[in-house]
Amino acid sequence: GGGRVQGKARGDAPLQTKDHHIVVAERCRHLDGLDLWQQEGKAGVGPLRLRRCLLQVGAVDVEPVEEVHAAAHGRPVHQRLAIGRGVRRQTATPGGLQRLQCGVAGGLVGEPMQLVKCEGSDLLVPADAEIVIEGTVNFSRRVENLLGEFAGQYGPEDAPMTRVNAITHRNDAMFYSIVAGRHPEHNTLGNVAVYGVQRSITASIREATPEVKDINVRLTPEMGTLAHVVVSIDKHSDTQAKDIIKRIFAADGHIFPVSKITKRVIVVDDDIDVHDPVDVRWAIWNRAATETKFIIIPGVESWELERAAKAGQKSVRIGIDATMDLEDADKLQRPTIPGIDEINLQDYID
Questions:
Q1: What 3-state DSSP class applies to 291?
Q2: How far apart are CA 162 and CA 78, in angstroms?
Q3: CA distance 218 to 220
Q4: Which residue spans within the chain are E strands per DSSP?
Q5: CA 270 to mean position of chain CA atoms
Q6: Which of these, 35, 230, 248, 290, has the minimum number of CB atoms within 10 Å of its CB?
Q7: CA nearest 323: which of 315, 331, 332?
Q8: Residue 151: left if φ>0, alpha if ψ -120 to 50, beta else—which one?
Q9: Could you tell me the CA-to-CA distances from 75 to 70, 72, 78, 102, 118 in Å, in that order?
């Protein structure tokens, strides 16, 4: 997973893969590569994980749109994997579920992406790449393997095969990789990649429940692979929170249905800071006194990254009404200290 590929330097004749046995990624690692692809003369760019390359074939991740296009038009998808380039560009490329164009990626990092032609085609790759692997994706052949995701679990995956046509590299090329699982570099890329999902969930909740005051969609590795949603309300009835929970889980989500990507929905009063996990936990365990405040929804279709899901990729969803019951509102008020926010302890310490 971390060595160097020996052969011709980029700019000379490409290194052909015939009779070579190349292992570019092991189970415990992901390849740190920038994927460039081409369909009908249009090129795009995005992050790619290459799992295994044996002789002339390898398993690669691809976007569903690429596979649909190949099936509809009967044409192969040509991919070029550029290994090793600027860290800022690496962070920029997974900024959404759709492929970012090269110009957008360059704009995000504040400088143009310098490109050069591949050896085997006119497709362009970053000029600062350490290694370039050129190949053609065969969607009729797939391989199964284990993949370590950013939330910290292995799980079965399958991917189409790619025939490696050429490999070129610098004379002193370094092989870049990231450590899979809950490690800083993988978590950083994972957080950037799911940012668009968080925004889509938030937008869907706003549409489905316009009365909510504030929303926090937490989709971070320490909370697992699924989102945890907290919303605050100005409560008017004891049935209001449950109704909101049901509407949130039923929302379309734009990218994913909210129920598919969200594990838990918590509703709190508007005196709770939805962005403060400590404040939210305080509300749950101080304002939910009976079993009726908890909603269990079994057998919901879940995101493929929830490895604990059972047959049919089904798992449970949880709703929590962490609001005060109206009859208890007077005795559950939080203490308030007038002027506390204006006090600076430094003014009273010598």
A1: helix
A2: 9
A3: 6
A4: 29-31, 33-39, 42-48, 50-54, 57-60, 77-83, 115-117, 124-126, 131-148, 154-169, 177-179, 214-218, 227-233, 262-269, 294-301, 314-322
A5: 30
A6: 290
A7: 332
A8: alpha
A9: 5, 8, 9, 23, 20
Q: Each residue's pLDDT tens digit in the chain (350 positions)? A: 233 333 334 443 333 333 222 323 222 233 344 444 444 444 444 445 554 433 333 444 444 445 555 555 566 677 778 787 655 555 555 444 334 456 666 676 677 777 788 887 777 777 888 888 888 887 777 777 777 777 777 777 777 788 888 888 888 888 877 777 776 766 666 666 677 888 999 999 999 999 999 999 998 877 888 999 999 999 999 999 999 999 999 999 888 899 999 999 999 999 999 999 999 999 999 999 999 999 999 999 998 888 889 999 999 999 999 999 999 999 998 888 888 888 888 888 87
Q: Is 100 helix (H, G, I), strand (E, B) or coil?
A: strand
Q: Provide the token pair at 55.
A: 């002789």
Residue whose structure tokens are 């011709």:
8
Residue 187, CA distances (Å) to 1, 123, 184, 194, 222 in order: 19, 30, 5, 11, 10
AA identity, residue 237: S
